[in-house]
UniProtKB/TrEMBL annotation:
Residues 137-174 form a coiled coil. Keywords: Activator, Coiled coil, Nucleus, Transcription, Transcription regulation. The keyword Coiled coil applies. This is Mediator of RNA polymerase II transcription subunit 21. It holds the Pfam family Med21.
Length: 183
């Protein structure tokens, strides 16, 4: 088991990883907001199940506007936006995953927030367990003397156990040397 400072550093590292992952999730998976009076910029919702080998749509659309061919000019103004055919996977231009449904996104936000709060509480517990502000120098010195005395006792017991082990090994060696193989 690591010492308290190492545990604290690991907990802070985990907190930073959780924060980064939360911000990245919010940035990449947020649902699009609707602004009154403006056309929606949201891509069409992704199908519930698509085969991974399904081809991507051949045209890119910008919300309600006309479809834009990757290698050519815009279609005529009257052309409706192209929706993905059933079984086709929706890809966004920047390669990011499609937005989450609002209910799934909110549930994930609550879970991420709970994880962040639990990690912060663990950090606080580790900080409170550190010696320092609550302990005076005199009490810390007396605790160190107690621990040194305990360490000396344990060291004496270890030395006695080591001597006993050496005696047992010698006795076992003599025993094995005195025995012969029986055929």
């Amino acid at each position: 088991m690591a010492d308290r400072l190492t545990q604290l550093q690991d907990a802070i590292d985990n907190q930073l990883i959780l924060m980064y992952a939360s911000i990245n999730y919010i940035k990449t998976r947020h649902p699009y907001g609707e602004i009154l009076g403006q056309p929606s910029q949201a891509p069409p919702p992704a199908p519930l199940s698509t085969p991974p080998h399904a081809p991507a749509s051949q045209s890119l659309t910008n919300g309600d506007g006309p479809a834009i061919e990757p290698n050519g000019p815009a279609h005529a103004a009257a052309a409706p936006p192209l929706a993905p055919a059933p079984g086709q996977q929706v890809e966004q231009r920047d390669g990011s995953p499609p937005p989450e449904r609002p209910d799934a996104f909110n549930a994930a936000l609550h879970e991420l927030a709970r994880d962040l709060v639990l990690q912060e509480q663990q950090i606080e517990l580790l900080i409170n367990s550190l010696p320092g502000l609550g302990n005076r120098e005199v009490s810390q010195e007396s605790r160190m003397r107690e621990l040194e005395a305990e360490l000396r006792k344990v060291e004496v017991a270890r030395a006695e156990a080591e001597a006993e082990r050496e005696k047992m090994v010698d006795a076992l060696g003599e025993l094995l040397a005195g025995t012969r193989r029986v055929h």
